[in-house]
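Two quick folds needed for the group meeting slides. Do the first one here.
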Amino acid sequence: MFTGNGIKIFTGTSHPELAEIITRRLGVSLARAEVTKSGVGETHVRITESVREDDVYIINTGCGEVNTALMEVCIMIHACKIASAKRITAILPLYPYARQDKKDKSRAPITAKLVANMLQKSGCDHVITMDLHASQIQGFFDVPVDKLYAEPSAIQYIRTNFNLADISIVSPDAGGAKRATSIADRLGVDFALFHKERKKANEVSRMVLVGRVKDKIAILVDDMADTCGTLCLAAQHLSEAGASKVYALVTHGILSGNALKNVKESVLEKLIVTNTLPQAENVAKCSKIEVIDIGNVLAEVIRRSHYGESVSKLFDEVPY
């Protein structure tokens, strides 16, 4: 039984709903902290209870005002560090700047590495995140990084809502092939992927389907959906290739710009996302969006981390 002794869970302003789900699941109260912004835009943090010799967890995600969320985490980590916290863990369901993970052109920054440096310099001892855009980001850290997967929750959703004989798992690009094949293999279903050629960073010029989806329910799987241009274009191609229905299942539903409009006007039956980012507003605006709760996974990883238990079991199972 989880007693909550010696543990403090704080949240920034980016996703307090997820923090509430996690603390409710663990049966502890959210630790008290005041996070405010001054007139000039500076972030002020005041930890209003003792954290001396406590195991501290700080939850914030890379959404909305990403720079504000990142500074909140760094300042909260620093505040807890100099208040003699025993260990400080940053829980970042969506890692900020995860897509800037390599030097892809001349003079381009590797901002994901800079974020890792900021977190470590602030005094972070441990990082927990989910479905990193690129696994090499773990190597940017000199402290332990637990990368969780939404895959078990996605598989549970598919098993519950679909007849496995009717479905085909599809990757919208070659980069996501490993994720899609892993899900397809564990479900024992067919797999297909798209090869795409880009004009610009977020503009797709041509997509070629590799695999058969005729008379199947096609489920597109990806780590994040931003403007949803690729997903909607892939859904259109799948429909033209003879798929009976098309769904999309994504870990991080960023849904910026015209994303909701694109989803509404697309042939997608549903866009299923997890709650690594706040989705209440998006669900209210678009009836095609459905949310999978991963709060129980994050709560269980906190419990296991606090008691020094293995976290790898959560890579294959959804905790009950």
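Then this one, please, same format:
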Amino acid sequence: MAPAVDREGYWGPTTSTLDWCEENYALTQFVAEFWNTVSNLIMIVPPIFGAIQSIRDRLEKRYIAAYLALTVVGMGSWCFHMTLKYEMQLLDELPMIYSCCIFVYCMFECFKTKSSINYHLLFTLVLFSLIVTMIYLKVKEPIFHQVMYGMLVFTLVLRSIYIVTWVYPWLRGLGYTSLTIFLLGFLLWNVDNIFCDSLRNFRKRAPPILGVATQFHAWWHILTGLGSYLHILFSLYTRTLYLKYRPKVKFLFGMWPVIMFEPPRKH
């Protein structure tokens, strides 16, 4: 975490229970953590286009919700890192729980009939979200949130491994790429927390470009945003494959992955 040597900016004193390693208000008085803020764009813009494409393709609403949930996480994280206010912190952290619950629902409903609704699973995930929300608002302990979020991510990892091991082995590339990118982001998140003092001292002496490159919490946003986006693609690919939609991964502008598919042939 960040040492208490940061300047005060437009948004006033920090009220969040977390203050990350990036130097506060270093680039502008209007953004507390500049790089940690703008790095959220990867979680905001691509999922919006994914949701629009899902609507056009008339996909099940849960996948539209998955894309939009990732966008909400990005917007909440943007507000949190821009202001370092407690209310904005909640706007970041609680949607992380809610979006993961949507991801879990999508993953466990991949092999059901089209447009079916699993009310038992839906009720369980909504109840889990409500309990986590109430406890977190009461205890205000970031570790509690991190453990709950970790449980959901671990559930998604196990489900993904099951699918690429026993159901669709040819999806290992997409599934493991998503997982590897996410775990790399988690590694850099820990490096940023553990070695914050050393990183700050290095940035005081290093050229600006190297200083930006060592903003590892911003890299956490970029990598976990990309990993989460790829996870939605993996879930969507699995689902449309089961529905015989013949999905394919295409790359927009030769670099950004999207799912394209054709409806099943009518006999």
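Slide caption for protein two: Strands lie at 247-252, 256-261.
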